[in-house]
Input
Amino acid sequence: MTEQLQPITNSYYTQERIKGDLDYSRAQTIAKMMLDNGLISVAECNKLIAINRETFSPLFAEIMPKIT
Output
């Protein structure tokens, strides 16, 4: 007997939300690299973080810390 696996559907974890999280993570990595290489200041990095949160709407944006 072979069973077929049925995809789990969940309205919270949509393809769009998962893609937003991945895009957010990539954007954050780039912002952190720019900060580490002295291309931007901490204040500018925090502005980028805020923009990234609005743009990509990551799942846990409200609890993610700023860079200090």
About this structure: Helices lie at 15-36, 42-56. The radius of gyration is 17 Å.
